[in-house]
Design brief:
The complex is a heterodimer of chains A (about 425) and B (about 350). Chain A has about 425 residues and is mostly helical. Chain A has a single domain, classed as ABC transporter involved in vitamin B12 uptake, BtuC (Orthogonal Bundle). Chain A contains 17 helices and five strands. Chain A has a three-stranded antiparallel sheet, with helices on one face. A two-stranded antiparallel sheet of chain A has the order 1-2. The longest helix of chain A is centred in the N-terminal third of the chain and has 48 residues. Chain A is globular and about 70 Å long. The two termini of chain A are about 15 Å apart. Chain B is mainly alpha-helical. Chain B has one domain: ABC transporter involved in vitamin B12 uptake, BtuC. In chain B, the strands form three sheets. In chain B, strands 1-2 form a two-stranded antiparallel sheet. Classes of the chains: A mainly alpha (about 425), B mainly alpha (about 350). The interface between A and B is large, with 52 and 52 residues.
């Protein structure tokens, strides 16, 4: 009598293993391709174009990838809509900028701080996470869509505050001259750039807590250095987040996303779990903000508006909510569209119109602003259409996670599959 | 849901206490200001009421849609701007005189309101049909995201039309020395009265419609319990479409009034206005129609006081601070709302 039970057990175990292998395979394939591209890209690009401007662009794109990975925890894993994600980005960036520039000398403190990047990036992360916790604690007990509104309000307040508190943040004048990261000279590698030897010989850094000077390699504005740094940060973030996803907390997040009441009935503390997702998401944003401040060297209030939050949301939705590798690809695709494709469009369209003999379209005529600027004006429309169409036609995103796909499948289909599997096993 | 309170004073949260203390202090400061400079205070109040009347019209659309399908219709603010834009186009067909009021201006006014309102109604019903109806049974996140998407689409259309520049809205209301007066140092123009009267008429019409008409009854029933309403033979899709239609009528009227009053419109006007109007709806108790009207009026006045006494750069901080405070401490708003059920 015990034989069928054992067979059933074996079959279900086998089926589950099979599923897991499929997930792992596909994700590993995407990660492998991404890693390969990330390693080859700088060399290939330098070889082809002879300049590192694309590498600097890629390093900038990395900021968005980090943001998308973080927002994915909030929106994709836990199913909470955060519309003020840029606020935490701003908090991280300002935390770094204030304590790594001369800004505080002109504030009521009258003393400037230069704390190294490697410490401040974690401080920025913690500050953003605590702001997330403070904001999330009272609001996460409310309905889900109230969170969207509270974060939206918060996302409006933070840039406005950085405008208003100009005594501290410089207001509209922004904070410039932000310190670059530096490493001791013996840690050498690809980030040391082409003229690393010269730099080591000439450059000295001072650690803030001692008066002694060290020979060191400063990042300055070398794109390769930032590129290597952001790739390492992203790899770390991916490992961290995918482990979280597979952990007990990750399963609790998904349970809450699918049915909060049922999750609470299963003994999950929904408030704490949601708060954790929200704060972890915020901490990634703060982390990315500190990196952004260092790599651009300038932090100004107008780079943290609502559009930034929406851009990250579009990246997550397009890539596939809940799927880390998909979200990374989504972020890269949207970044490419925003910063390479759309800026290149107006001249391209203008040339095309010229070649087709429609050059009259290129000129300003009454309400018509000329073809080039009309193309430039399409950004909003494209964004909106991407959001609506993806949600309507492919709500699981371009690269859905296999688990999510399985969840979305109809129960009947799943039943049918198990029947087929059992038949095959027999 | 049980509320966790770690810091309480006799069952009353410390955060609540601080919030009410700050509100009380602000109210006392306002009162002292009203006693010391009564004329200035009355003037600011009038600005606040006219602003508030416009916010109320937009807030009604938010609250009605939220009441019936529990969706924050992010596109509603942009619908309001679209109303103002279509208003300029419609007024372009008339030879309106901005210098003095003429019969043509009156005719244009009588035409522009119904035309714009009907066009917007059609637009909003289309949006509902395309972007919200297919997702009615999807996870809550899905329609919210399409709503943001539709908001961007509307903004994109207006941006495509006019670019980043402000658009002039014809100043066709009667104005000038004959149409304004000063009572006890308080300046009142015809425009102010016009805005408040039109808004009041529309809100009164809406109240009658919701409470007396058959469709209004169907809306109330659908808001209360969609499945039960369906069982009673109410066409749910038609009722929801009607809600979107009526919300858009009010937003269109609000857009035209805004244009007539301020004479300047921008493509992204609706984002900020919509957010403030939503705050008003939440403040009054979302889902509650008189609440939205009251909340709009109060938020308009608060923003006017904040503009004058604190500084206009702080107004947004004040308004969204109120939004967060209300949502956290009193999510049912001033007049309360239907019991939220999952």
């Amino acid at each position: 009598m015990s034989e069928p039970v054992a067979a059933g057990k074996r079959r279900s175990l086998f089926a589950r293993l099979n599923l897991r292998e499929r997930i792992r395979d596909r994700d590993q394939a995407v990660y492998g391709v991404l890693l390969l591209v990330a390693l080859v890209f700088p060399w290939a690009d330098y070889f082809v174009t002879g300049s590192t401007s694309d590498v600097s662009k890629a390093a900038h794109a990395g900021t968005w990838v980090l943001l998308a990975i973080g927002l994915n925890v909030v929106v994709g894993f836990a199913g909470l809509l955060d519309l003020g994600y840029a606020a935490f980005f701003a908090i991280g960036a300002y935390t770094y900028a204030l304590f790594a520039s001369a800004q505080l000398a002109s504030s009521p403190l009258h003393h400037q701080y230069h704390i190294p990047f490697w410490i401040m990036i974690f401080v920025g992360m913690l500050v953003a996470a605590s702001f997330g916790a403070i904001l999330g604690f009272p609001t996460l007990r409310l309905r889900g869509d109230y969170l969207a509104i509270v974060t939206l309000g918060f996302g409006e307040i933070v840039p406005q505050l950085s405008f208003n508190l100009s005594q501290w943040t410089g207001g509209i004048n922004a904070i410039g001259g932000i310190d670059q990261p530096w490493l001791p000279f013996w840690i050498t590698g690809p980030w040391a750039g082409a003229n690393s030897i010269a730099t080591i010989q000439n450059f000295t850094c001072r650690v803030s807590w001692s008066q002694q000077l060290f020979p060191c390699y400063a990042f300055s504005f070398d794109p390769v250095a930032y590129y290597v740094l952001i790739v390492i940060l992203i790899i770390g973030a991916v490992i961290l987040v995918s482990n979280l996803y597979r952990s007990r907390i990750g399963r609790a997040w998904m349970a809450i996303r699918e049915d909060e009441v049922a999750a609470a009935a299963m003994g999950i503390n929904t408030v704490t779990t949601k708060l954790l997702a929200f704060s972890i998401g915020a901490s990634f944003s703060g982390f990315a903000g500190a990196y952004y401040g260092a790599s651009i060297g300038l932090v100004s209030p107008d780079s943290f508006f609502f559009v930034v939050s929406i851009t990250v949301l579009v990246m997550v939705v397009l890539g596939g909510m809940g799927n880390i590798s998909g979200v990374i690809v989504g972020a890269l695709v949207i970044y490419y569209i925003l910063y390479s494709f759309l800026p290149a469009m107006p001249p391209f369209v203008e040339n095309l119109a010229n070649n087709l003999g429609l050059s009259s379209l290129d000129h300003v005529n009454g309400n018509w602003p000329g073809l080039a600027s009309a193309t430039q004006r399409l950004n909003f429309l494209i964004f909106g259409l991407i959001l609506v169409l993806v949600m309507l036609l492919r709500p699981q995103g371009l690269f859905p996670s296999r688990v999510r796909e399985q969840e979305l499948k109809h129960a009947a289909v799943q039943e049918e599959e198990t029947v087929v599997e059992q038949a095959q096993a027999v | 849901m049980s509320r966790v309170r770690s810091l309480t004073i006799g069952g009353f949260g410390l955060i609540d206490f601080l919030f009410y203390l700050v509100s009380l202090a602000a109210l006392l400061l306002l009162l002292s200001e009203a006693v010391i400079h009564p004329a200035e205070f009355a003037q600011i109040t009038i600005f606040g009421i006219t602003d508030g009347a416009m916010y109320a019209l937009v807030a009604l659309g938010y609250t009605m849609v939220y009441g019936i399908i529990e969706l924050i219709n992010f596109a509603h603010g942009d619908l309001f701007t679209l109303g103002a834009y279509i208003g300029t186009i419609v007024l372009g067909f008339f030879a309106v005189g901005e210098e003095s009021f003429s019969v043509i201006n009156l005719l244009a006014l009588l035409v522009v309101f119904p035309v714009v309102m009907l066009i917007l109604g059609a637009v909003n019903v289309t949006i509902e049909r395309i972007a919200y109806r297919p997702l009615r049974n999807a996870p809550r996140l899905a329609p919210l995201i399409t709503a943001i998407g539709m908001s961007f689409v509307l903004e994109g259309v207006m941006f495509l039309y006019s670019g980043p520049a402000t658009v002039h809205f014809p100043d066709i209301l009667p104005h000038g020395p004959g149409w304004q007066t000063t009572i006890g140092g308080v300046f009142i123009a015809f425009k102010d009265i016009f805005v408040v009267v039109v808004a009041a008429i529309l809100v009164a019409l809406l109240a009658v419609f919701i409470n007396r008409s058959k469709l209004g009854k169907a809306m109330r029933a659908t808001a209360q319990d969609r499945d039960a309403a369906q069982l009673m033979g109410i066409d749910i899709n038609r009722t929801i479409a009607a809600t979107f239609f009526i919300g858009a009528l009010l937003a269109g009227a609000g857009g035209i009034i805004w244009g007539l009053y301020f004479n300047n419109i921008e493509y992204h006007l609706g984002f900020r206005t919509g957010l403030i109007a939503f705050t008003a709806a939440v403040f009054g108790g979302i889902g509650n129609i008189p609440g939205a009207a009251l909340g709009g009026l109060l938020i308009g006045m608060i923003s006017a006081y904040s503009d004058s006494y604190i500084g206009s750069t702080w107004t947004e901080v004040v308004i969204f601070g109120i939004l967060i405070g209300v949502l956290v401490l009193r999510p049912t708003g001033l007049l309360g709302m239907r019991v939220p059920e999952k």
